[in-house]
Model the fold of this input.
Amino acid sequence: MTKKVALIIGAGDAIGSAIARKFSQRGLTVCATRRSKDKLLPLLDEISLAGGEAFGFGCDARKEDATEALFKNIEDNIGEIDVVVFNVGANVPMSILETDSRKFYKIWEMACFAGFLNGREAARYMTKRNRGTILFTGATASVRGSAGFAAFASAKHGLRALAQSMARELGPKNIHVAHIVIDAAVDTQWIRDNVPTYKERKAVEGIVEPDDLATNYVTLYDQPRNAWTFELDIRPWDEKW
Done:
């Protein structure tokens, strides 16, 4: 039987790696990408030691040629891409007064344009098989533009709109497109270093655990098509919203 592949675009140390591990536990072959392939080695070793199969790729998700080559390589040499998770970050807070055009454009490229490139390539292969799942990681900024996040919010709003349009076009082709709004602090190194109340919130389960968050991605993948979710909001029990 042809292998089913979970392709994780942006398999960072916290959320992306947790999603990759969960799909490996689900029985899929994992293909993970970051701009630096070397940073993927601990994740690949962990999945391998647990009995799974994983491949790592260094790829800039903003580059069209590289993205097209990545998908073709996986489809030709590893297996059928059955689920794609677009999980590229770009959460860079800055005042609008300090946001130059280069910074704004780069954040848009990472958080929105790259989502288009990878979502389009996923759709091109999945429509041939009339099945597949495409999941986009969103954030609070996907639905609310806070002070100091003009560039990030505009990009995340755009990614959400892209996901909505794709869901309406591809749903009738048996392709599940979903957008996950992470409206909370996730237990990452940045949060541990920069949130003064981290320990207190962690003690009362007020910080999202990456592994628990990742479970939701597999749940979306496993949903029957008569009850698909398009948008899933995730936050801990005490988060204000």
Remarks:
- The beta strands are 4-9, 29-34, 54-58, 80-86, 132-139, 175-182, 231-234.
